[in-house]
Amino acid sequence: MQKVDITQDFALPVERVYTYLAEHEHLGPLFGAAITRVKDGDTSRNGAGSVRSLKIGLLPAFEETVVEAVENTRIVYRITKGSPLRGHRGVMDFSSTALGSRLHYVIEFGSVVPGLDRVVKLGLDRSIRKGLATVEAKA
Question: Which of 3, 46, 63, 129 has the smallest number of CB atoms closer than 10 Å to its CB?
């Protein structure tokens, strides 16, 4: 299993950061992917049950499903279709700080293809850090 573990502080209130990152279409720069909404959530647009499709380069598209969404606090999602990654779980934990807000973002996964998980980890870590650096200007 691989683990991407990133903590990012923002000079914005937690409500703005959560609202921005909860919106599926805003996640493209974090993952270096084209993202399409497949389904709205069970009780809210970006809540539990919402599904997004991600397309990275020439690779086949895959889907992620939000399994838990607690407004301004937490988003948990899993890959649910079309990926060689296994045991995938992404968790975004949001909290307020004295100067704004903090995101603690952890993604864990393995792979059915030997070594693929290590390559994906390196790419995800770099892409997410770069994408999070743009959130304050966009949120």
Answer: 3
